[in-house]
Every structure is written in C-alpha cells, then in structure tokens.
Design a protein that fits this description.
single chain; Bacterial Protein-export protein SecB; 4-stranded antiparallel beta sheet; elongated
Length: 140
C-alpha cells in the first residue's frame, strides 16, 4: 500500500518542564500518578503541498494544587501530501491519525525522556498512543 504522504522532517519544536522548587518536586513525586496526559494536534499549510503537523503532549495535574509540575512537548512533522489527495476528509485523517501514528514511537521516547530527565524515572505510559481511536472518537 502506498502512503498518502511522505515525512520530510521531524523535530522537537518546543519542550518545557517546570518544577519551581524542591518542595514542589517532592510533592509531585508523591502525586504524579494523578497527572493526566493531554494530546492536541494542529496543522499549518505550507507551500508546495507541504504541511506542518504539530503534536502537543501536556502532562499536568488538573487539580487545584499549588504545588505542581508541568511537562509539555510540541513535536513538529513536515510532510508532503501526495497529489492524488484532494478530499478534505482524507487530508484530516492523514493529519490527525496517520502522521501521528507514524511518529508515535519517537514521540513517546522523546516525551518520556523529558519526564524521566525531570526527576521522574518511574513514569511509564500504560498504553501506546492510539491516534486511530482518538480520530474515530472525534469524527464518528
């Protein structure tokens, strides 16, 4: 099966880890299991059938605790869409599902490196990112 796109580049566009002080770090270490991972995907059309796809992962405490850390990564992927792709629905599926699925291993590794290097080496992702499921939930 022929891919509907080609990845030309992928890179960390923005990365952030914020833990203001040691008290916060110790508090977070005890409570990080309550943190939630949020995934957001945006895109920007470039020229010549190129699209920049940005996958943002935010790992944060949604509770009103004063002591909290914040972890965020924006992973950018530059793709060229095949000329045969004309339908908006096909394009949406490529951007929101196929491209993120293709880079998911590298995305997960980069994200976990951020969290681990921020002092939380025990954090693991319970399951793989399922962009197909996220796409289906949004559009079906």
């Amino acid at each position: 099966m022929k891919d509907n796109f080609k990845i030309l580049a992928q890179y960390v566009k923005d990365i952030s880890s914020e833990t203001p002080n040691v008290e916060t770090y110790l508090f977070v270490k005890e409570n990080i299991s309550k943190y939630l991972l949020n995934i957001d995907i945006t895109s920007k059309a470039l020229k010549n059938k190129l699209i920049e796809v940005n996958v943002t992962l935010k790992f944060e405490d949604k509770n009103a605790n004063e002591k909290k850390s914040y972890f965020e990564i924006v992973y950018a992927v530059i793709v060229r869409i095949n000329d045969e792709i004309k339908d908006k629905k096909d394009l949406e599926k490529i951007i929101l599902c196929e491209v993120p699925t293709k880079i998911s291993t590298e995305l997960e590794k980069t994200f976990l490196n951020l969290v681990h290097n921020s002092g939380h080496p025990e954090i693991k992702l319970d399951k793989k990112f399922d962009f197909q499921k996220l796409y289906n939930e949004k559009f079906n």
